[in-house]
Predict the 3D structure of the following.
Amino acid sequence: MLIPCAAGQWYAGAIGGVSTLSGDATAELGGASPRTSQYKPENGAALNLFAGRHFNDWVSVQGNYIWNRNDVKLISISGESFYEQMRQSGQQAAIADLLVYFRPRSSRIRPYLSIGTGLVSLQSESAGLTGRPGALPAPPASFASSRPAVRFAVGMDIAVARGWALRYSFSETIRKNDFSAQLTPAAPRNLANFQNLIGMVKRF
């Protein structure tokens, strides 16, 4: 069924898959005791629930609730002092996106680009500390923060039945890095959250 270009339409869906966090590291080689630190994230699960409106065949807006969970290892070394800490960490986000499609709704395959912004809350808890911290301040047993973020995504909707489509999305969400801030010495990069997701979307 062809849908007029000017006709608005609501939609909603759910997609899930894999979350990959960016790592970070730094080193201070000057002084009597050189120091180095890094953190290493593991891949984890991710879920994106969303609802939005197609204003026409080309432009849509979308609200998202996004959840992901990732284990992270923090490591710091300074002279004879060192530690390795495993952490269980998760993020919850509320993001508003603007989507631009490249084919009309009557097409079976509709690729899109999107950009959005919102708030991302991070929670992290220690799962064990080993080593000899000595003069190094060990990260706290738990920490949490809520910070603004920006998200970029590419994807496509593939029609599979009347009103139903398969959606694939690859996104990157960038926010201030609380893992890097807990390292000694602190590392410089922002935290990037890459997500490969697939699921279903329903048009109403």
Summary: The longest helix spans residues 178-182.
